[in-house]
Amino acid sequence: MTALAAPPPAPPERTKTRLLELVKRHGPQTAQDLAQGLEVSVPAARRHLCDLQEQGLIEARTERPGGRGRPQHVFVLTERGEAAFPKTYSSLCVDVLRHIEGLFGEGAVLKVLDARNNEIISHFEQDVPANLPLGERVQGLVNRLNRHGFDAVVHQEGEQWYFTQRNCPNLTVARQYAQLCTAEKTLYAALLGVPVERETRMACGQGNCRYRVGPPTS
């Protein structure tokens, strides 16, 4: 009787998806836990974990099991990793803004967003002092945007600074409420302390949101 051949290994991307699902479903996991759940070797699980860390989807922490015992390294989803799973936040946000606008008028949405901006500015100023060179402040802003899933990059052309958002976690809301994009641009100018102009906008169907920082150089 001919022995059945072993099933082919799962494609790497499918394995990474399963790994994310395990962490989502069961919470913080060790590399050994994940290797067992994926039915792969621990070194193979670590390779997938390394790739996912580089993509910003997973991060490592040191925890004590149950608050006791020896510390161990566990892996959890980042905000970007959480965003890979379906959410209803955008529809909830649109509903809330619609009710705010209906109850308090069109200007109420922008007032709410302005209040949110003021809170963000206070935290940003603690992390990125106003006396830093402009390029460092732009990089600090981009770092913050990336922690929230905007996939942003910064570059310089001559003396002019630019940054580009290649993803918009708020796109569904922004398409219905342009006030969100208005408040966003106002926030960036306040954080950087210089004028900021938006040259492209995803909510209008363009491929990214590109910003020019400061007035155009001559």
UniProtKB/TrEMBL annotation:
Query: Which Gene3D superfamilies is this protein grouped with?
Result: Winged helix-like DNA-binding domain superfamily/Winged helix DNA-binding domain (1.10.10.10)
Q: InterPro entries given for it?
A: ArsR-like_HTH, Carb_Metab_HTH_regulators, HTH_MarR-typ, WH-like_DNA-bd_sf, WH_DNA-bd_sf
Q: Which domain of life is it from?
A: Bacteria
Tell me which residues make up the HTH marR-type domain: 14-68
What is the recorded name of this protein?
A: Transcriptional regulator
* Originating species: Deinococcus aquaticus
